[in-house]
């Protein structure tokens, strides 16, 4: 299974505090069953990264998990 | 924003956010209601579990928060969805982000399960009743997939 970033070259600014991550819950509602057992990072309705560990996800996101909604898929 | 009013006329809810139904576990026959919650700037999805206790924090996520040892209240044993586990109890500020109205931050009692070496925690993070959801007001609109929330005034 891939551990490559779904969007490896883009840098993401910090999230707006106190606001839901745009498009994140919708993405989760539409993509259940995908990436089983992996952590995913969602923002602007897109999958930014996915990995089996948060350390790897953090690396793919450029060193911070605080740029997307994080969820573990089943 | 003021959504719903109590009998005394005060707002029941001051914010609203989307929720989505997802399976919490592989092989689950029923979906759970998931919402966004933020702890120290880290936003993650969590399942609402009014039959459970505490904010159950996935151990990997807890590791990323680098919890202040001073926030640990004590150790405890908890049964979570049939899994009995020892863990640590913390008091943490949790924020429910708002798409309309104001976000809500409240102090939740959090349980972080302790894992054996190499063990992977199979459950998601949960917002349980005791020590967590019982500290806020909330209501769910299943038609619009919106959760309304507000502070408990005492």
Q: What is this structure, in a nutshell?
A:
The complex is a heterodimer of chains A (74) and B (154). Chain A has 74 residues and is α+β, with helices and mostly antiparallel strands. Chain A contains 2 helices and 3 strands, in the order H-E-E-H-E.
Biggest sheet of chain B, in brief? 8 strands, mixed
Q: pLDDT under 50 segments of chain A (min length 5)? A: none
Rg over CA atoms of chain B: 16 Å
Mean pLDDT of chain A: 87
H/E element string of chain B?
EEEEEEEHEEEEEEE
Proportion in helices of chain B: under 10%
This entry's quaternary arrangement is: heterodimer
The strands making up the biggest β-sheet of chain A line up spatially as 2-1-3
Distance between the termini of chain A: 15 Å
Assign a percent range to the helix content of chain A.
10-25%
Radius of gyration computed on alpha carbons of chain A: 11 Å
Could you explain the architecture of this structure?
The complex is a heterodimer of chains A (74) and B (154). With 74 residues, chain A is of the alpha+beta class. Helices cover 19% and strands 20% of the residues of chain A. Chain A has a 3-stranded antiparallel beta sheet with strand order 2-1-3, sandwiched between helices. The model of chain A has no long low-confidence stretch (mean pLDDT 87). Chain B is mainly beta and 154 residues long. Helix content of chain B is 5%, strand content 56%. Chain B has one helix spanning 59-65, and strands at 3-5, 11-13, 15-18, 20-22, 32-39, 42-53, 55-56, 72-80, 83-96, 100-101, 104-113, 126-130, 136-141, 146-151. An 8-stranded mixed beta sheet of chain B has the order 4-5-6-12-7-11-9-8, covered by helices on one side. Chain B has a 4-stranded antiparallel beta sheet with strand order 10-3-14-13, with no helix packed on it. In chain B, a hairpin with a 5-residue loop joins β1 (3-5) and β2 (11-13). The longest helix of chain B is centred in the middle third of the chain and has 7 residues, at 59-65. Chain B is globular. The mean pLDDT of chain B is 90. Chain A binds chain B through residues 14-15, 17-21, 24-26, 28-29, 32-33, 36-37, 39, 53-54, 58, 65-66, 68-72, 74, and chain B through 17-26, 28, 34-36, 38, 41-45, 58, 60-61, 63-64, 95, 97-99, 102-103, 120, 124. β3 of chain A pairs parallel with β6 of chain B, so a sheet runs across the interface.
